[in-house]
Amino acid sequence: MLRTSLPFARLPALVTRAAFKFKTGQRAGIATHATARSARAGVAVHGSLKTQQQRGLASMALAAAEEPEHMVCASTAAAKDAILHRMWNHIQSTGEENAFYVVDTAAIEDRYNLWMTHLPYVKPYYAVKCNPDQRILSTLARLGTGFDCASMAEVNDVLCAGVDASNIIYANPCKQPSHISFAATTGVNVMTFDGCDELTKMKKLHPDAQVVLRLFVDDSHSQCPLGTKFGAVLNDVPAILRHAKAIGSNVVGVSFHVGSGCFNVSAYSDAVLRARKAFDIGASLGFNFELLDIGGGFPGDETAPVAFEDIGRELNKSLSEHFPVSSGVRIISEPGRFFAAASHTLAVNVIARKLAPNSLAALTPSGSSPLKASQGKRGLHGSVDPYYMYFVNDGLYGSFNCLLYDHAVVHPKALTTVDDSAAFTSSIWGPTCDGLDCIAKDIKMPVMDIGDWMYFANMGAYTSAAGSHFNGFVPPQKVYFDSTTTDDE
């Protein structure tokens, strides 16, 4: 773990210069979707006049746009620097001690533009379960995405964000009856199923529903497999569709999900082929399917083992073969982490520190104190290195539930400027009384003091959404800003 690459005294000036390149190059030169362009132009954005002033001369913007590869690199660095600057400014201006998120709403729009570049014919329906943050919902609603909901509460949240019911898919194959009735009352008509009993239940409670058959597909290469719980195998599809025909259900299409965080591009093409077979089975039974939902599983940041561009290339090839534009089939998807992950950066405070028991016995002579950060850090007489245990104010019962439920791997970095000339084996622990509340073990870190800060990037997916108040520890607050401006939102 290394300290941040820029001393904070230098951050404001550097961030301003980098952000100027970011706005004029990446935003003005690369955005492809009309809605994104109009939103970026300053429509309904706080401080739009100041934003326009910061964009600089049009001639400089044109010059920046002519160097897209350079600007992409500059914009990535600028966004990161702006986030760290905003984080540190919040700590200094408020005296903050509690853990908190910095949420970059510009990152959400960046991901939308990336999606429209590589999968322009697939309409994204954001998976609300990933992170139901209202700012994420409103940003994506403004951009024109749909929404994938799995409960009455999620449907209500999206409707409250001003989204029309026609832009919602109730993509939970096993629904509580009262939630189906709520969907019927609010005009949410498109919903998924994967068995005959669910079909019968939906027909009774929402007779006008447009239902979508969820298929079982190979999700063995995903971070979080879903096939053990959901999906009809192809051999069962004929019987399920015959039942749908018998009770008069309006089956309009097919859906699948390769698992959350899929790292194998061929899983998508295999799933599309299975969907094609299901379409053909439906046609043989008199159905005219018009919707294909390709689910989620798309990576949320640039550190994933598989690049989104590679997945898009594979999907476009497979969709063109089996569901060409001429087929008239409408194609949607359910990305969650793709939009949310990179938008959140979490800052945590070191609330306690100690040497691990074995390390303490080896390092501390009778009657002396454990090493401090200002003392030598290579062990007594260079013979033994200390093992530091750091306790921070967020953990497995809060944002880091993702370690258990989402199989996430996190990478702590020092926000506070520290001496990184030497790193020692360390562990990071959450604040609760549970001995299982451990964020990381046996990692290399520079020595940090009580009161120092760490940060974790890419913490927007399946983190705060599943946090709790266990032991009386409240979830981190959120600080919203746009990394392309110097203003908070």
Write the layout of secondary structure elements.
Blueprint: H1 11-30, H2 34-40, H3 48-54, H4 58-65, H5 68-94, E1 100-104, H6 105-118, E2 123-127, H7 134-143, E3 146-149, H8 152-160, E4 168-170, H9 177-186, E5 190-193, H10 196-205, E6 210-214, E7 222-224, H11 237-247, E8 250-255, E9 260-262, H12 265-284, E10 291-293, H13 308-322, E11 330-333, H14 337-340, E12 344-355, H15 357-363, E13 388-392, H16 402-405, E14 413-414, E15 424-429, E16 438-445, E17 453-456, E18 477-481
Parallel strand pairs: 1-18, 2-3, 2-11, 3-4, 4-5, 5-6, 6-8, 8-10, 10-11, 13-15
Antiparallel strand pairs: 1-12, 7-9, 12-13, 12-17, 14-17, 15-16
Helix pairs in contact: 1-4, 1-5, 6-7, 10-11, 12-13
EC number: 4.1.1.17
InterPro entries: Ala_racemase/Decarboxylase_C, De-COase2_C, De-COase2_N, De-COase2_pyr-phos_BS, Orn/DAP/Arg_de-COase, Orn_de-COase, PLP-binding_barrel
GO molecular function: ornithine decarboxylase activity
